[in-house]
Structures are given as structure tokens and as C-alpha cells.
Sequence to fold (141 residues):
Amino acid sequence: MKRGGFKLLVTVFILLQLLLLPVSAFDTAEMAREGLTIDRVMVQVGEDHHALVSVDYRLRGFTLFYVIIFGGKVIEPVLDGFITNAENIEVIEMRRDGADLSVKLTDSGAAIRLSCEVPEVIVRYPEGRRLELRDTSTIPL
Fold:
């Protein structure tokens, strides 16, 4: 192997090690939380404390980079903790700019509680009523 080829191989190896270091050495859930901005939430309220939730978000920085390289599993912990009074959150579909969730609420309370304030929330109720909220972390049922 020529000397230039060996240098290239060593450089690629070092870059790969630097790339993988943050995955093992840092809390990727915390990194995802900091690199994910939720823009809008749409909720379709169902029967028996079930809801379909569509979350529109923007990824930035390392979070975007990690999602491109490793896939959406990096941000799943953030989505799992997004609705604080949910018993079971299942990610139905995940996209680079959003995700669809199936949610079973833990109580029959009068609201869905979110882990952060969301600029825009649209709620559709079973009887056809629609509610739009701004800058909220609580969605009335």
C-alpha cells in the first residue's frame, strides 16, 4: 500500500471513531431534546382514552446529523416522553420532519399533558368539533 493510501485509511478510521464517540459517550436523548423543536401537534381524540397524535418538528445540529446517519431511533426517547400522562406511546410512522403516534392515556383526566409548550395545537374530537390552541402544554379533552 502506498504511503498516501495508508494516511487516507488512518484518517477515515479516526473520523469514524470521532463520529461514533458521541453515540456511546453522551446522552443521545438529551442531545435529541436540545436539537428538536416541536412546531405543531395535531390530535385526533378517539374512544377509550386513545388518541392519534401527529407531531411536526424541526431537527438541527447534531440531532439532524444523527437522524440522517443512524435513523429516527435517536429521537424516539423524546417522543416517548412527549405526552406525560400516557401509558403507551407507539410510534406509527417517523419522518425527518414529523412523527405519528398512537397514544393511550393513563387517566380519564380532562387533558393531555405535554412535556413542553407547543406553538400550535389542533385537536379533532370524535363528534367533529375542532379546537385550535396556541403556546400550550395542556390539551383539553
In short: The helical segments are 3-25, 28-34, 61-70, 76-80.
